[in-house]
Amino acid sequence: MSDCTDCPAPGRRQFLREVTAAVAAVMAALSATPSEAHALPLSLGSALGVLGDELTYPVPTADGATIDRENEVIVVRWKGEVYAFALSCPHQNTALRWMDADTRFQCPKHKSKYQPDGTFISGRATRSMDRFAVRKNGKNLVVNVARLYRNDKQAADWAAAKVEV
After folding, report:
1. Percentage of the chain with pLDDT > 70?
2. What span, in angstroms and rounded, lies between the C-alpha atoms of 125 and 106?
3. Which of 89, 93, 160, 164 has the fewest C-beta atoms lying within 10 Å of its C-beta?
4. Is 71 left (phi over 0), alpha (psi -120 to 50) or beta?
5. How confident is the model at residue 102, as a pLDDT?
6. The pLDDT of residue 155
7. Which of 120 and 9 is assigned the larger pLDDT?
8. 81 burial class (0-12, 13-18, 19+ CB within 10 angstroms)?
9. Does residue 162 register a pLDDT over 90?
10. Dihedral sign of CA atoms 22, 25, 30, 31 in order
């Protein structure tokens, strides 16, 4: 398994271009197949509010994922739980993409694959998607972007970084 020491790290502009391209591809795929039921619908969104390091989003009412490009956050509701992830792959910070047909996230650069709850499946990455600390406040989800957990270094915090709905 390669550690990709020769792989170039993307700059912020490249990262944002990749995010935009990924979101556009997902949205095009979703609109191209309106009659099909999607296992985890995707949408674009933004925080309802920002207070310091905390972003507020509505608690999703159904399974699905919302990408907040501006804050580089993915909010996912899946199987009765809500998570907030960093938008970038933990391997080399490339924007992750949703693979609707396979019901999973995937890194377009090295093909690392992740379940909707962020759990690593396969690929060059060596850990699951990074999760932000979250809490429920009424009908809102509060995401603390200053508290990012890696499952390989903060396993208990990573596992607890979810809200049951």
Report:
1. 76
2. 11
3. 164
4. alpha
5. 86
6. 97
7. 120
8. middle
9. yes
10. positive
Cβ-count burial 86-114 (b if 16+ within 10 Å, e if not)? bbbbbbbbbbbbbbbeeebbbbbbbebbb
pLDDT tens digits along 50-85: 999 999 999 999 999 999 999 999 999 999 999 999
CATH of domain 12-164: 2.102.10.10
- Which residues have a Cβ under 8 Å from the Cβ of 99 and sit 6 or more positions away? 105, 106, 113
Give yes or no for residue 164 having a pLDDT over 60. Answer: yes
**Pairing between strand 54-58 and 73-78?**
unpaired
For position 5, what pLDDT does the model report?
57
Radius of gyration of the chain (CA): 15
Kindly give the pairing relationship between strand 73-78 and strand 81-86.
antiparallel
